[in-house]
What we know:
Elements: E1 2-7, H1 11-27, E2 32-37, H2 40-45, H3 49-52, E3 55-59, H4 67-75, E4 82-87, H5 95-98, E5 103-106, H6 110-125, E6 129-134, E7 137-142, E8 146-152, E9 155-161, E10 165-170, H7 174-180, E11 186-190, E12 193-196, E13 200-204, E14 207-210, E15 215-217, H8 223-234
Parallel strand pairs: 1-2, 1-3, 3-4, 4-5
Antiparallel strand pairs: 6-7, 8-9, 8-12, 9-10, 11-12, 13-14, 14-15
Helix pairs in contact: 1-6
Amino acid sequence: MLQIAICDDETFYREKLKKLLEDYVADRQLSCNIRLFPSGKAFLSEEESRIKYDIVFLDIHMEEVDGLETAQQIRAFHSDTNIVLVTAFIHYVLEGYKVNAVRYILKDTLEAALPECMDAILEKMSLAQVTFSFLEGEKSLYTDNLLYVESRKHKSYFCYMDTELMFYQLYDRLDVVEEKLADYGFLRIHKSYLVNMKHIRKISNYLAFLDTGEELPIPRLKYPHVKEAFVAYKGIL
């Protein structure tokens, strides 16, 4: 399920974007959860907003915290969230490059621009899925939303972000899980932890700092390899 946020201080455009997105996903038989926010301040007041959403539509002009500042705070978490800037003024287009926005849409072209924008984002995301037979039943998970897998007492616990943080249990060794997730950017930072590098903010002081606020340990002997792998993946420390 795609997690989408629309942040605009004008009710008309919030609702218009929501309707266009609902029509788009319905035509393509996709599922999504769309959340509306009346301001950048309201969006950022929920800490999980910075990492929860696959796609965020941001109006540039909002009171107190505008769309660009909101986007900058999302990017401060090194988030891979797809940011789309929406505005009535074309001269702000260059500002989008500063926050690595995937698209810049003018409000008077929403009907024409939104389908192409979503096509590009979905192609970029690929919406890769993996299927496991959990104790809770067989489930297909989007790899982008899988934060990490922890080995604990002969079980693997999957920490997964859907509409809320969820945990699934699997009777399988972490080695087996690691092999199945080998092509999706997961890193074994510890004998007990396999982490999605998309959700690592930084590696420092023998810890992996996740964009959820969690800190996972990295053994001293494994630390150089983990740090090198993370830098190769994201190009940052």
